[in-house]
Amino acid sequence: MQLSISGLGVTAERAVDPSSPLVILNTLGDEGGEVYRSVAGMVDRDFSYAAVNVRDWNGDLSPWEAEPQFKGASPFAGRADAYLDELCGTVVPEIEKELDIDPSEVVLAGYSLAGLFALYGIYRTDVFSAVVSASGSLWFPGFVSFAEKGDPSKNVNRAYLSLGDRESRVGNPVLASVGRCTQSMESVLRSKGIRTVFESNPGNHFKDPALRTAKGIAWVLGYRSSVIVGPLFVLDYRRYLADDESYYCGQRQAGDEAFDEDIGRDVRYVHSAGF
After folding, report:
1. Which among 272, 230, 210, 261 has a CA at the least distance from the CA of 29?
2. Are strands 22-27 and 48-53 parallel, antiparallel or unpaired?
3. Distance (Å, rounded) from C-alpha 16 to C-alpha 48?
4. Backbone angles phi, psi at 246, to 5 degrees
5. pLDDT tens digits, 74-95
6. How far, in Å, CA of 240 to CA of 248, rounded?
7. Pick from 57-71, 128-142, 219-233, 235-249: least confident
8. Bridge-partner residues for 241, per DSSP?
9. 93 with 174: CB under 8 angstroms?
10. Among 44, 185, 245, 262, which residue carries the largest CB count within 10 Å?
11. Residue 26 to residue 56: CA distance in whole angstroms
12. How far apart are CA 104 and CA 23, in angstroms?
């Protein structure tokens, strides 16, 4: 379903059950549909979904003003509070009205600067209960310090962070800090009582953004089984250890004895074409 809300283009999908979770993804272009299809292939849970096309990526998603990190890029105008007010006060309610849903929870997700915005959002509003920051721009000047000193909403109970294993290998020292900043953010969220996972993905910042985002959304929605792409390789798996309430995500190869023992009998295969 294509919607226009306050001049924002929204691609929405309705769950069968109107009380199912609603996922809000801030995005650019048409990758919202690709993310939805990937998530649907990873989870057995019903969910509603809305991909919101942001008007001004650097302006609306940045929490405060900062210098651009790329030559010729638009400045970080620091309008995140204004956009967050619009998102929570107008866009999300209108999505719920148009889809005729009353979700049990709302998840905020994003990639890159939208991942930063998602984390910022849980400090500024009580609307969301889970957050996904896939390859988030956590290098943003002052953000980790802001997160350490502040308190996220007590409604938030789980967070997913990810990063490409080559994202820190850049010449710009600010951007190169993203690995350290993301690990620090994981520690911050855990210290504030939020169940948090940090997953490392292969590649640089521009590799598989839709798939990385989908994996994060699938994690917060809750895998009911392992997800395997193709006949041999595990894309992602999750184990919940009841004794310490920890989640683990990683990559393993099917047929490995330790993998088979860990996963047990609950394995679901997904064709790679689905991604």
Report:
1. 210
2. parallel
3. 8
4. -110, 145
5. 889 999 999 999 999 999 999 9
6. 7
7. 235-249
8. 246
9. no
10. 185
11. 11
12. 11
Give which of 270, 225, 239 is closest to 38, Cα–Cα.
270
Cβ–Cβ under 8 Å, residues 42 and 226: no
- Report the C-alpha dihedral over residues 22, 26, 27, 32, rounded to 10 degrees: 0
Q: What domains appear along the chain, each with residue ranges and CATH number?
A: 2-224 (3.40.50.1820), 225-275 (no CATH)
Q: For 90-94, 104-108, 181-185, 221-225, which range has the lowest pLDDT when averaged over its residues? A: 221-225
Structure tokens at 172: 């710009």
What is the DSSP track for 17-49?
A: STTS-EEEEEESTTHHHHHHHHHHHH--S--EE
- Contact of 222 with 47, CB cutoff 8 Å: no
Does pTM surpass 0.90? no
| Cβ within 8 Å of residue 227, ≥6 positions away | 41, 42, 218, 234, 235, 236, 237, 268, 270
27 phi, psi to nearest 5 deg: -150, 180
